[in-house]
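Convert to structure. Protein one:
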Amino acid sequence: MKQSLLSVLTKKSLRLLAALFLVVTSAFSLPQAAQAFPIYAQQAYDSPREANGRIVCANCHLAAKPTQVEVPQAVLPNTVFEAVVKIPYNTDAQQVLGSGDLGPLNVGAVLMLPDGFQIAPDDRIPEKMKEEIAGVSFQKYKPDTDNVIVVGPISGADHQEIIFPVLSPDPATDPDIHFGKYSVYAAGNRGRGQIYPTGDKTNVNAVAASTAGIVSSVSEDSVTITTNDGQTVTEAIPAGLEVVVAEGQAVADGAPLSSDPNVGGFGQKDTEIVLQSGTRIKWLMAFFSAIMLSQTLLVLKKKQVEKVQAAEMNF
């Protein structure tokens, strides 16, 4: 009986160790899972905005494309409002995927709000706004940065406008928050990047000749160049790229050998928002009302004086 129990415990222990070993080895043998876009940027940079003002997405998405951001001119404390990042592009465009096949473009966005601003809790978001943000997942750039939000990659065909439901802070409950004007930074990209986190190029780049010479042979996946001293250099052409040179053609060092497959790009935009005090607005309205009343009284007094002067002239 004791031997049977010992045998069962041994088998269970071996199974547990085997499972643990599989988990550990998988974590080290498949590190790419942790490097998925945009996770690697969050791991490599403490802030998505560099000291020169550039959003770090530009380090991999090299082409410049327009991006727009819309926020209210002013918001009251503890209110929910929309911040919209627009990422326009031609939805008929097809990008080269990692496999070399053509596919639709994805989009992504980064929104850097002032301190204290954050994505609104689900119970504070109006039903109409919930319908507009359906299918969009908002994540913090860092666990402790509620005001820096990342979205994507998501389908670009349905999300050329990404709506962020934002909750404004309340200075009455947070002494670190003050009324005033603040900067908002937004960025958006469409399509795959040209640089991997390791610094290697993706297949979303045109292939250039590494040396000058004469093209001696051309195939779907390679171009061979014969240099002036008789040496041959073969340039690999990734799947999905179209060769644009022919046999016998002279090419210079750095000349393109394939078409440029990049149809995406990155852009960023800055704007401003005012955290406005309701009390200030009430006093402003009272001031305008007092001005209007005083102006009206002055006009009435002027009319009265004119009547008196007219009556005196008749005598």
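Protein two, convert as well:
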Amino acid sequence: MAFHSAASALPVTWRKASASGGNGDCVELAGHAGTVLVRDSKDPGGPAHSYQSDAAGAFLAAVAAGRLVPVA
């Protein structure tokens, strides 16, 4: 994982889930140089984290399949 201090300065197009509400409580994703970037939609100029594409894909597949256990 890498950290980028200013997500809005990255040359990418940010996307969020079509099912997200209009209240800004979601994350946005973007592809960049073989990684997946993640930022908080409430703070578009704030930081972003980047993850290797295969790791991000495995995480998203687990979420979609309901294989993650909620943390109490």
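The chain has a mean pLDDT of 86. The CA atoms of residues 63 and 70 lie 11 Å apart.
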